[in-house]
Design a protein that fits this description.
- The complex is a heterodimer of chains A (311) and B (478).
- Chain A is 76% helix and 0% strand.
- Chain A is built from 14 helices and no strands.
- The longest helix of chain A is centred in the last third of the chain and has 28 residues.
- Chain B is an alpha/beta fold and 478 residues long.
- Chain B has a 6-stranded mixed beta sheet, with helices on both faces.
- In chain B, helix 3 packs across helix 4 and helix 4 crosses helix 5.
- The longest helix of chain B is centred in the first third of the chain and has 16 residues.
- In chain B, 43% of the residues are buried.
- Classes of the chains: A mainly alpha (311), B alpha/beta (478).
- At the A-B interface, helix 9 and helix 10 of A face helix 2 and helix 3 of B.
Chain lengths: 311, 478
């Protein structure tokens, strides 16, 4: 049997976990195996997948972003207010925030600051800005957005279609293009990349800017689905995105990422939440139970890694 | 009309603190020649290579490329076709071979770059290692060490817009088997015949003798011999690396005491044994398995689950900043941390005993400081090393392992420490001393010479001489 590439093997685990959970959900709720069932199960898949991809790009350069959740919330607040009645100003604000993110990447690299601390501090800035923009839950989705996210394609629910599209685009951008090679190279062996004549500072700025673009897409699609926003709407995306990347076969350091795996990982986590609801697990226990599922899946992965290293 | 040398260095001098890495080195490399660079530890080969490839700025001396004095940097060197292959991995293990080629050669950009990158690296691999079977789409991290080395070497010889003119190979055959080494050297000869230049650094003298057109022997930061390769043979090279006869060091007779440490046939080499009261030296070129043996001896004798009450071995680190000093602590704490068990009563530290021990060792070993409570970094490098020694010697462990601790230390401190080692050995302590300096090796009672990860020679008594150690450090056959 021809040996699969390491990337393909890493993808196998999240896909298998996803299929296992999906099967379990169908056993509990046979009605879920329908167009509407899928639509409801994966309604929030797109924003979570995009936030996971944003985190993945940051992890590709060996950093960690603890501000994804508040940043997505900020973007959602801006979308639900400025993009409705002052669209030009709204887009300018979002563009400026991409610049801030890129600047963050430069500052972290240039002064050798720990990314965790800087992004944690930044998360409070985004949280404050979100509250300033939208003090109380409210706002509306721009009409074009609500229409786009409300579209019902014939065969598969929009969430599935978009998820596949996002996975393919992310794969092309990060695994096949020159930019992706540069970003992952910085994560793999930054010294050698610098010696080859590249500006690693510019590479990191590009990585952070790319992550910001993914996060903006996440916030916008979230508002399109929820048709309103509030300053805390996406706080849990921070930890969910990290879990999604790791579940999908990515690693904290070394520049090893897997875009398709990250999307599958995000959807698996979403599914785990629904699975627990169908099991009638009380909401207070759900986070703990989600964590337990995550630990179980990662334990299996460590086991597989060890077997692979021996064999 | 003579062609200007590709690169020329004149009276280069480089100092790292106390150490004179290069002491007035002048070297010129022309196209069409293979320069063999040979020397023992501390000869200055790595420093010279760093100067040539732009990694280290040359402040004292001049550098000319193609006859012009130019501002030199890594980018400038690469732009003029200078490539370097080191022993440590310079590829990104998470990327494929072709993607690494794309990163290392910036000119491969644009659409359809993958196909061009594959072609470039594939052509280079085919040229240097025909029949290699390495696919350009395989992840570097999943390749064996030998294949990674092959990819690195091929990357240096690859032509992706700027053809390589001078390739520096630093121990390139260390991970390659005999067949691959032969292919590489054959390619080096073809490359040189085609007008390129190669600088070959190798401890396998046969390779250097068979491939180089000119051989340069370095020692202690200077060039001591420079002749066409035909004028050298194995014995002449070893003799050139040595120095004038030195005073005979009084050495104790071969001990008949019981062995305190023993390792039968370490990795297929000779067996190792250390007896009570001996000073054993681990010699050979740096990085040939000496540190691994010290670590194995330490791990074997020390349980790593629960600390032993009576430690059997203790360790003096060579890389102070990495695994020696606790930078934020005072001198006294740095000294006492090795013997906490002895200084504690019912789990609490006995401050007076600690201070007394500190004063005692300060006097014995000569730590120059007005107050043992000052931060450790207020001491000079030599004194910091003395504190590390005191830490090890103040334990009750009968065996002391030393990992090249005198590197970069001033000569005065060295002499004091040698005297202390002698007196402790007389009192019955055993020392296993990895050193990269010939002077220290010749102080030992018995010396094990390492080469390629295992012990190849066991010298004792009057056999411990510089020529004998040199001869064993360098391999003969190609």
């Amino acid at each position: 049997m021809r040996r699969l590439s390491p990337d393909a093997l890493r993808l196998a685990l999240p896909v298998l976990a996803f299929v296992a959970l999906l099967t379990a959900v169908f056993v509990l709720r046979p009605n879920a195996m329908s167009y509407n069932g899928f639509h409801l199960l994966f309604k929030l898949a797109v924003p979570i997948a995009l936030a996971t991809l944003a985190q993945m790009v940051i992890m590709a350069v060996n950093d960690l972003d603890l501000s994804i959740g508040t940043y997505v919330s900020f973007v959602a607040c801006v979308t639900a207010t400025f993009l409705v009645d002052q669209p030009v100003l709204g887009w300018l604000i979002l563009l400026a925030s991409v610049g801030v993110y890129a600047g963050l990447g430069v500052v972290i690299a240039w002064r050798q600051l720990p990314a965790i601390v800087v992004t944690l501090g930044m998360s409070f800035v985004w949280a404050g800005l979100a509250v300033l923009v939208l003090p109380a839950p409210g706002g509306v989705a721009p009409s074009w957005l609500a229409g786009a996210m409300g579209w019902k394609p014939p065969l598969m629910p929009l969430a599935i279609v978009l998820s596949i599209l996002i996975a393919v685009l992310a794969h092309l951008l990060l695994m096949r293009s020159s930019l992706g090679v540069l970003i992952r190279g910085v994560g793999g062996n930054e010294r050698s990349v610098a010696r080859a004549g590249w500006s690693t500072l510019r590479a990191r700025a590009l990585a952070y800017a790319t992550a910001a673009l993914f996060a903006i897409a996440s916030g916008i699609t979230l508002v399109g689905l929820m048709t309103s926003a509030d300053a805390n709407i996406a706080l849990r995306y921070t930890l969910l995105s990290i879990a999604g990347v790791i579940l999908g076969g990515g690693e904290f350091i070394g520049g090893r990422i897997n875009p398709v795996g990250a999307v599958v990982g995000a959807m698996t986590l979403l599914l785990a939440g629904s699975f627990l609801t169908f099991l009638s697990v009380p909401p207070d226990w759900q986070i703990g139970a989600q964590g337990a599922i995550l630990i179980a899946i990662l334990g299996i992965r460590v086991l597989l890694n060890r077997l692979e290293a021996q064999g | 009309m003579t062609v200007a040398p590709l690169i020329q260095v004149d009276t280069a001098r480089v100092r790292f603190g106390e150490v004179r890495a290069l002491d007035g080195v002048s070297l010129a490399v022309h196209g069409g020649e293979c320069l063999g660079l040979v020397g023992h530890n501390g000869a200055g080969k790595s420093t010279l290579v760093s100067i040539l490839n732009g990694g280290l700025a040359l402040r004292d001396g001049s550098l000319r490329a193609d006859g012009q004095p130019v501002g030199w940097s890594i980018n400038a060197a690469r732009a003029r076709g200078l490539r370097c292959v080191f022993q440590e991995l310079s590829l990104c293990p998470n990327l494929t071979v072709a993607e690494n080629a794309r990163l290392m050669h910036r000119s491969l950009g644009g659409g359809a770059w993958r196909r061009r990158a594959r072609a470039v690296i594939g052509a280079a691999l085919d040229a240097v290692f025909p029949g290699h079977e390495i696919s350009p789409d395989v992840q570097v991290g999943s390749l064996t060490i030998a294949r990674r080395q092959m990819v690195e070497i091929a990357m240096a010889f690859a032509d992706a817009g700027t053809p390589p003119r001078l390739v520096i190979l630093d121990e390139p055959t260390s991970s390659l088997d005999a067949g691959l080494s032969a292919q590489l050297l054959a390619h080096v000869r073809r490359f040189v015949a085609g007008g390129g230049a190669v600088i070959l650094i190798s401890h396998i003298l046969g390779e250097v003798l068979s491939t180089a057109t000119r051989i340069v022997v370095m020692k202690d930061g200077r060039i001591v011999a420079e002749r066409p390769a035909a004028a050298f043979d194995h014995a002449a090279l070893v003799a050139a690396m040595g120095s004038a006869a030195r005073d005979h060091v009084a050495r104790r007779a071969v001990s008949q005491a019981a062995a305190v440490l023993q390792v039968p046939a370490w990795r297929g080499g000779l067996p190792f044994a250390a007896r009570r009261g001996e000073v054993i030296g681990l010699a050979g070129l740096g990085g040939h398995g000496q540190t691994e043996m010290l670590q194995a001896l330490f791990d074997h004798a020390n349980p790593n689950w629960w600390p032993a009450r009576d430690p059997a071995v203790t360790f003096v680190a060579g890389d102070r900043r990495l695994n020696g000093t606790f930078d934020l602590w005072p001198i006294l704490r740095n000294l006492s941390v090795g013997a906490l068990g002895d200084l504690a009563r019912r789990g609490l530290m006995d401050r007076r005993a600690e201070a007394a021990r500190g004063d005692d060792w300060q006097a014995r070993i000569g730590i120059r400081t007005p107050d043992m409570g000052l931060p450790i970094l207020s001491l000079s490098g030599g004194n910091q090393q003395k504190v590390l020694f005191a830490r090890a010697l103040s334990t009750r462990a009968p065996v002391v392992l030393m990992d090249d601790p005198m590197r970069g230390v001033d000569i005065g401190t060295k002499q004091e420490v040698y005297a202390i080692i002698r007196s402790e050995a007389e009192a019955g302590r055993t020392f296993v001393w990895y050193s990269t300096e010939m002077d220290e090796i010749t102080l030992c009672d018995r010396v094990y010479v390492f080469r390629e990860g295992r012990i190849v020679a066991d010298l004792s008594g009057d056999q411990v001489t510089e020529p004998a150690v040199l001869a064993a450090s360098f391999a003969g056959a190609a």
